[in-house]
Amino acid sequence: MDRAAHETSPQPVRLQDYAPPPHLIDSVELTVELGDDWTKVTAILSGRRNPAAGSGPAPIVLDGQDQQLQAVTLDGRRLAESEYQVGAEKLTLPAVDGPFELMIEGRIRPQDNTALEGLYRSGGLYCTQCEAEGFRRITYYPDRPDVMAVFTVRIEADKERFPVLLANGNCVETGELPFGRHFAVWHDPFRKPAYLFAMVAGDLGCVEDSYVTRSGREVTLRIYVDPGNEGRTGHAMESLKRSMRWDEEVYGFEYDLDVFMIVAVSAFNMGAMENKGLNIFNDKFILADPDTATDGDFQRIEGIVAHEYFHNWTGNRITCRDWFQLSLKEGLTVFRDQEFSADMHDRGVKRVSDVRLLRTVQFPEDAGPTAHPVRPDTYIEINNFYTVTVYEKGSEVVRMIHTLLGPDGFRKGMDLYVERHDGQAVTCDDFVAAMEDATGVDLSRFRLWYSQAGTPTVTARWQHDPATRRLDLTLSQATPSTPGQPTKQPMPIPLRTALIGRNGAPLPLRLDGEPDGGGATERVLVLDEAATTVSFVDVPPGAVPSLLRGFSAPVKLDAAWSEEDLAFLAGADDDPFGRWEALQSLSTRALLAMVGALRAGKPAVLDQRVVEAFRASLADDRLEPAFLSELLALPGESLLGQALDVWHVDEVHAARAEARRVIGETLFDGWSALYERLSAAEPAGGADLSTAAMGRRALANAALAYMVASGREEGIRLAVAQARPDGTMTRVMGALVALNDLERPERDAALAAFHDRWQNDPLVLDKWFALKAGSARTDTLDQVKGLLEHPGFSIRIPNRVRALIGGFTAGNPVRFHAADGSGYDFLAEQVLALDAINPQVAARMTQPLVRWRKFDAGRGKAMTDALRRIIHSPTLSKDVYEIASKALA
Ligand code: TRP
Ligand code: ZN
Q: Is the CB of residue 391 below 6 angstroms from any atom belonging to ligand 1?
């Protein structure tokens, strides 16, 4: 294995080493004096020995990073320097037995903090990001989630430049100070771990609204943004109110403080953060209007606002005992936000897009060198574990519990979970135990879903005997080994199952041995062994099984459907997911056959059955436009790549482009009629944000893209017209995406016009960066390199990095994986540059290199060379070290 240039490799933290904290903190009084050179932080901690961690004197050990300690006072006595030890990441104080009061004085430089963890300054704004371990960069503290305290925070700053001073909870005092300074004191009555601490200071505009809870309490809602952006907060505010109502209706969860605040900041490592009463957001997930945000942006904003709000109960009131339990709050909260969005819009469409994300990003993670369980058991840097596995697969695990218990059972489980654990820091196991105890359902084997990594494959074979009218369905499961887990046990897998009759209607189901099936047309079969056979009786000939309906488990399904079965299900399955899945499978088979042909030096010809299935779907006017647009989307290149033993990037790209051309050309009249009909329904201004209107726009854009793909001039003409930058963003982006790969002056002109119109709006400019970086044109890498010098680009702003660099490395497989290795060299260089500034983002950017085993030998070698170059950097962060070393292991 390759060794880093590290003196000693960073050491992993292990779940099995968990021990309760020796000391608890009951209250924190924090004073933060913001200054241009230094920020002074004084913390008064009232603590005591933790009865759950033994008795007798124990030294107080606090976490701390990147700060200058100035003084320590214990129970009123200032300690001499000889009485404590300051290490690189720990402060060790004398042993204490009983209650204590500790005062820590230190100073920090937020203006130099480019990692965007702890307290940092971005432009004229001070803000914090403390999850997971950022609070230790603000003051010395037992920075772990099982230490929960009541916080009172006093902020002092220059009044003119920082008129707005915010922290968690309620503002209890404000006042003037000498030298043009002022202060505010905030008190949060709820005990919380340090990772939920937040404060903000700056010159911000504020939009205020209010919400009356179910029990009649009035809550003030405030969204803070850079002055001038107030007009772009309406959608976030409405989303917040809808989330608050939904959580009351579905779970009985009411908001618990008098004020709920959101602050939008432009330099932010991730999407948003659920700090108690003071959510901090990446501005990209707050600011929206129809001119600058697409319908997709609007929907993401709604989902993320809901996600952070929902954390108030699932995360804040009940938090995690340790970071291995991260999915306790994240998996559950993603499940809740997915259900919220499904209720607000179209359930089938939401399910399809969630499954697409899971398959496109989580399945590869689960099959690669960084695979880990939903509850990891070891990590080097916890920031690397905010993953699609912990979040999205974690949500699927909660969803399976929901499926097994039913909606009422699940709600009973949630009620018991809150009744038992409100105010506590708990484990995934506590959650499962509450679900079991509330319903009597045994989930002991189900717990494997938390501890076992890897995506199971479920194999389904069936046989129908016309004489006895029995259909025997044989199911088996296998999970491939993953790093550190060579062998796997069978897990309980809920499979929602139906049989679709020849006439297209689902059949009433009866299992062998049952007196009658009660007329139900769907059953949840639980495959809880390695293999089993279930028999349905009274099954007429020609019935086709509809399996894994609603994607009832995060598995790969290998089912014995013929192409005819798939074409049939694509038109007849009463489960929307099943219908979409059937067409996806049919298309995938056809595309993989085309890849095979190209590899063999033969022309790639699209299976006519795909075209016919598309034609039939296009003609089915019972389908909602949004759903139809999902149905008509071919599987993406990375999904196709994964389905191959070796991801042949060029052939996959060529096959998919050819399939799109054929579908565009053969069905051109259908696309064109659809496009005209939908465009006529679009009101001028295009500000209708109803689910139906968004669906119509999605479908119109899909039709337009197929017309362009056909190669006919008419498609290009329509797209050029729709791309004019005075249109609404959904339409403009739809047109630009359709044109983006073309080697034509019209494409360049459309992008240039967009740039000229939006170059001073950073969030819109990001769309342009991503388009430039995502084009399949051969000059793309040169373009991207040139754009690193664009005045609108900055390596310090993660959104810019993700748009331009990520748009190329993660969003453009055919160019990133250029056979000459130029894409890999470029990424290695950028990761190293970024690592010196922001290790958390640098580690994420390294991801496109880790699955090098999926590629041919030449590419694999070039990718590992790039990883070696990274890992040999003498100053590498442990964030990037962990990812690169696992990739090379
Ligand atoms: N807890 C946040 C969420 O899922 C995400 C988060 C974790 C985060 N660490 C972060 C956000 C660091 C920004 C920066 O809602
Ligand atoms: Zn979250």
A: no
- Domain 457-553 fold: Immunoglobulin-like (2.60.40)
CA 565 to each of CA 368, 534, 544, 583, 732: distance values in angstroms, whole numbers, following the listed order: 32, 20, 7, 10, 39
Ligand 1 lined by 272 (C-beta under 6 Å)? yes
Q: Which tens digits make up the pLDDT trace of 423-446?
A: 999 999 999 999 999 999 999 999
- Segment 832-841 shows an average pLDDT of 98
Q: Which of 165, 258, 278 is nearest to 210 (CA)?
A: 258
Q: How far is CA 528 from CA 174, 356, 481, 693, in A?
A: 60, 25, 19, 43
Give yes or no for residue 330 CB within 6 A of ligand 1.
yes
From residue 569, give the alpha-carbon distance in Å to each of 366, 507, 550: 29, 14, 14
Q: Is the CB of 273 under 6 A from ligand 1?
A: yes
Cis peptide before 184 (omega within 30 of 0): no
What is the predicted pLDDT for the residue at 33?
A: 99
Q: Which tokens sit at 459?
A: 């194999």
> In angstroms, rounded to a whole number, what is the distance separating the alpha carbons of residues 838 and 855?
29
Q: Is 386 in the pocket of ligand 1 (CB under 6 A)?
A: yes
Position in ligand 1 atom list of the atom nearest CA 131: 9
Residues of the chain with pLDDT > 70, as a percent, come to 99
Question: Cα of 243 to ligand 2 centre, how many Å?
Answer: 15
**Atom 9 of ligand 1 has which residue's CA nearest to it?**
131
Number of H helices, E strands in the chain: 29, 31
pLDDT tens digit string along 803-829? 999 999 999 999 999 999 999 999 999
CATH classification for the domain delimited by 321-451, as one of 1.10.10.10, 3.20.20.140, 3.30.420.10, 1.10.390.10: 1.10.390.10
The band of 9, judged by pLDDT with boundaries at 50, 70 and 90, is confident
Residues 793 and 762: beta-carbon distance below 8 Å:
no
Checking if the pLDDT of 622 tops 80, the result is yes
- Ligand 1: which of 131, 133, 379 to mutate, judged by most atoms within 8 Å of the beta carbon? 131
Q: Out of 308, 436, 630, 882, which one is annotated catalytic? A: 308
CATH number of the 759-889 domain: 1.25.50.10
Three-state DSSP at 19 gives: coil
Q: What is the pLDDT of residues 444-491, one digit of tens each?
A: 999 999 999 999 999 999 999 999 999 999 999 999 999 999 999 999
What pLDDT digit, counting tens, does each position of 272-327 carry? 999 999 999 999 999 999 999 999 999 999 999 999 999 999 999 999 999 999 99
Q: What is the mean pLDDT of the chain?
A: 97
For the chain, the structural domain boundaries read 23-283, 321-451, 457-553, 759-889
Could you check whether 23-283 and 457-553 share the same CATH topology?
A: yes
Pocket test for ligand 1, best of 195, 270, 326 (most atoms within 8 A of CB): 270
Q: Is 274 in the pocket of ligand 1 (CB under 6 A)?
A: yes
Torsion of CA 771, 355, 859, 877, to 10 degrees: 80
Q: Whose CA is nearest to atom 3 of ligand 1?
A: 273
Q: Which CATH number is 23-283's, of 3.20.20.60, 2.20.28.90, 2.130.10.10, 2.60.40.1730? A: 2.60.40.1730
Catalytic residue flag (residue 746): no
Cα of first residue to Cα of last residue in the chain, in angstroms, is 6
Proximal ligand: closest to the CA of 282 = 1
Please choose, from the candidates 253, 34, 60, 63, the residue with its C-alpha nearest in 3D space to the C-alpha of residue 155.
Answer: 34
Query: Taking a C-beta distance cutoff of 8 angstroms, is the pair 686, 700 a contact?
Result: no
Residue 772 contacts residue 740 (beta carbons within 8 Å): no
Give the number of the ligand closest to the Cα of residue 844: 1
Beta-sheet pairing, 278-282 with 259-265: parallel
* pLDDT greater than 70 at residue 1: no
